[in-house]
Amino acid sequence: MSLSEQVEFCAQPAAAVKKGHEYSFPHMMRLDWDVLLQVMDSLGYGDFSRMSRTCQTLLRRAPRKLLSRAAYNAISIQSFPHFVSFCLFMLGGRHDGFQYLTNLVLRPWNEGCDDPEFGPLLATLLARATELEHLTLDDCEILELDRRVCRALASMPKLASLQVGGVIDRSFKGFKSLRVPALTEVKASFYYDDDVVDALPVFKPFRNTLRSLDLNIVNLCKTRGVRYPNVHTLSISMCLDVRPSLLAKAFPALQCLYFHTTLAELQTDDDIDEERWDNIDDQEPPSPRWSSLRAFHGSILDLYALGLRCTVDYVGAAGPALSSAVDERRLSAALADVRPSSLCLQLRVPEFNLSSLSECLAPAKDRLTELQLGLEFKGDMHEYPTHEINDMLKSLSAYNLRVLEVNVTWEASPERRTRATIRRVLFDEGSDTPWLGPADEEEDPRPAELDLEAMAYRAMKHSESLRFISISDRRVRSAVFEVRDTGCPESVNSKTLFQLSGASASWKEFCSSPIFTA
């Protein structure tokens, strides 16, 4: 039986749900219908489907209950049999479930894709899914199966988010024919080959409606004249080549940039320095200044190589951790470029010298008011890191910091990690050999616990401008303090610390800081 014949067959009334079938479950049916619906709604997809087929009442309510879950957890089709089953359910004619289908994911699969009826059936399914708001096509070749597939996408008036994978040259024609009036977000991953494509012309049909663009494996240094006037968030990962002046022209309203290149994997230190100077020269007048940019998320290496000639409010460089004198030099140069007011850094100690941190931050001294530091200590070398941290806090006293957050973690030595791996392999929970102790103790040795409040007091003592101080030990023990006046300005201790809870207005003010919201 062909796919279309199966769908037509299932459009006929099913005998299993006709009158009288509910008496097969007399005890369950004594419950009120609202109770049964709550029970059914709490089940997984398989049990949900089986329970819905026990009577007509539950079957009529099933589509709304089942498909409404897609608003939060997408309906994900991960195999050809799953696709056929979904088509039978949606196109069977016993309900109008398409009005509740808002989030659909089509994963790639090999089996069944060569069926001549697969393309037309997919086009039929998408043509009726007019309420879709989020659609994911992990294999962009689906667009080429039938010309009606692109036509169906163009007829979705509410489609706001489109995610596509495996975009190749043949896919461009399909995108050019699309006209999706409500599309505001596109995520696209391109194939990696010798001629990586420039992604900007590909999504030109959506340039006036897009607000967010996420691109993976791209080259952004070729095309000129393509503008996305309303995009405020841009994410670029595995970018092989880029020119800042082109980005500034293409995204004149951009506020938030997530950026990752392949520099660390493909180039030497000299090549990276040369890339930086090329980008700086590229931004000389008459190239426009990127005045709209407010936040940068990426590594210090990428920010250094990009050489931006503009001021931003936030730099989030959570990883990889800075761990050398070269990183110290790049950090100082990058901060001189963008001079942020909020900064997040990850530092590996002792490779990164904490005593030099104040000097590295000096280029942003006049604007820096919020600082988040992740400190990675080696467990074998720094059993008591309090001294190093206190010296660092003292060195930051010259800065007008308003918010300071310090997260302290320990990294086990390679020898400890090797022993922990052997223990897990030889003495796992499924073996008959008795367990000799938790692997966590080997992987993350416990040094002496930090006195969080004492450290916060030292930070307050060294800095007159601090309003909030957050200290975290191993990201398990944490405390947030607010600096308050004691009301006795002539007293030696004119300020004190007040530990915040999640219900206070001060806590909400602390959480609204750009280091958490940018």
Automatic annotation (TrEMBL):
<protein>
    <recommendedName>
        <fullName>F-box domain-containing protein</fullName>
    </recommendedName>
</protein>
<dbReference type="InterPro" id="IPR032675">
    <property type="entry name" value="LRR_dom_sf"/>
</dbReference>
